[in-house]
Amino acid sequence: MLQYREDFGIMRLRKAMASLMTIFLETHKPVEPTDIVCSAGVTSCIDLLCHCIADPGDVILATTPIYSRIYTDFKQRAEVDLWPIPVISKDNEELTPVLTIDMVEKAYAAAISQNRVVRGIFLINPDNPLGDVYSPELLMKILVFAQKHKLHAIIDELYALSVFPDGPQFHSVLKFPEIPDPERTHVLYGLSKDFGLAGLRIGVIYTPCKDMRNCLIQLTAFASVPYPIMDIAARLLEDIDWCKAYIAEFKKRLQAKFTSCSTYMKKLGINVRDSKAGLFLWMDFRHVCGSKSFKQERDFFLYLLNEMHLYIVPGEELLSAQPGWFRMIYTGYPNHLDEGLRRLEQAIQNYKPLDIVD
């Protein structure tokens, strides 16, 4: 473990990860360890893929709102731009709009009309921050769309096992008997969310494309996971019986906590999206902070931060096209969560929105 090994993942870890994905993602055929490349977290995986498939100034389509780190994953080093597919549009009055293939096609057409070079589409399934679980029908439409336009489809399945027991069944793209363009379809997974092991910094890219793997392998020298950490993770994942018991208990607790927190917020008059997965609530504060301007949203955010010493993520930071939405993590320490909810209730009661517009 203290000598040079494979920067792209020791075989023991890749075998353990392949077995885990095959069993828990219910893949159509066994995942081959040789089709997996490991790197230091999914952030690193996205960065490596961008260097392989795009040039600076190119764009990747991605649904919005979206976890804010994703934007910098594309932009910070590879200088690739994220082109939004707005699920929540500026004028949308629905509380729970959902992604459609028409939204994808409209965003692609808009990018092309601006003479942008579109290299791929990026999809988080289950979604962060909306908590949606995409249907097999929609996933296949997106894969066919990507094939039609010769785009890389990057499917981030980091929350694959964070689906509530009573929710819709998660469908990995690897469950399809046939993928329209397997050479351009790449699946991401990691241990930071479903297993709560963010500190290990382990992310994986599954791709059957040999040329892509060869390119990724050359880059992993700059973002490799320490060999002892890979060995620790492999030993954990090899215990499939423990993994099954853990995931079953994790899902049960996750849904119970989501239900209790969303019920609490609804009693305070805050609408919460009926998410089916994830570690977060997507909450509608438009009637609290005002819905005319992101200045109003920012003012409420700063009130929470400076007066209540409370941080929840404003929608603007997640590239939401509509002001007044916030994302809150509900899976922290119970005493921290209880205190945070108490402060949030106090803020809702005391805050006076600014009457301003952009």
Automatic annotation (TrEMBL):
<dbReference type="InterPro" id="IPR050478">
    <property type="entry name" value="Ethylene_sulfur-biosynth"/>
</dbReference>
<dbReference type="GO" id="GO:0030170">
    <property type="term" value="F:pyridoxal phosphate binding"/>
</dbReference>
<dbReference type="InterPro" id="IPR004839">
    <property type="entry name" value="Aminotransferase_I/II_large"/>
</dbReference>
<dbReference type="Pfam" id="PF00155">
    <property type="entry name" value="Aminotran_1_2"/>
</dbReference>
<dbReference type="InterPro" id="IPR015422">
    <property type="entry name" value="PyrdxlP-dep_Trfase_small"/>
</dbReference>
<dbReference type="GO" id="GO:0006520">
    <property type="term" value="P:amino acid metabolic process"/>
</dbReference>
<feature type="domain" description="Aminotransferase class I/classII large">
    <location>
        <begin position="9"/>
        <end position="344"/>
    </location>
</feature>
<dbReference type="GO" id="GO:0008483">
    <property type="term" value="F:transaminase activity"/>
</dbReference>
<protein>
    <submittedName>
        <fullName>1-aminocyclopropane-1-carboxylate synthase-like protein 1</fullName>
    </submittedName>
</protein>
<dbReference type="InterPro" id="IPR004838">
    <property type="entry name" value="NHTrfase_class1_PyrdxlP-BS"/>
</dbReference>
<comment type="similarity">
    <text>Belongs to the class-I pyridoxal-phosphate-dependent aminotransferase family.</text>
</comment>
<dbReference type="InterPro" id="IPR015424">
    <property type="entry name" value="PyrdxlP-dep_Trfase"/>
</dbReference>
<keyword id="KW-0663">Pyridoxal phosphate</keyword>
<dbReference type="InterPro" id="IPR015421">
    <property type="entry name" value="PyrdxlP-dep_Trfase_major"/>
</dbReference>
